[in-house]
Amino acid sequence: MSLHDSRSARRPDPDQAMVDIANYITDYYIGSSEAYTTARYMLLDSLACAMLAMRHPECVKHLGPLVPGANLPGGARVPGTAYELDPVQAAYNIGVQVRWLDFNDTWLAAEWGHPSDNLGAILAVGDYLSRKAEREHGKPLTVRDLLTAAIKAHEIQGAYALKNSFNRVGLDHVLLVRLASTAVVTHLLGGGKDEIINAVSNSWVDGGALRTYRHAPNAGPRKGWAAGDACRRAVIHALNAVKGCVGYPSALTARTWGFYDVLFGGKAFEFERPFGSYVMENVLFKISHPAEFHAQTAVECAMALHPKVAGRLDQVDRIVVETQEAATRIIDKTGPLANHADRDHCLQYMVAVPLVFGRLTADDYSDAVAADPRIDALRARMEVRENPAFTRDYVDPEKRYIGNSVEVFFKDGSSTGKVSVDFPIGHRERRGEGIPLLLRKFEKAVGGQLPARRVEQILALTQDTSRFEATPIHRFVDLFTL
Question: pTM surpassing 0.85?
Answer without folding.
Answer: yes
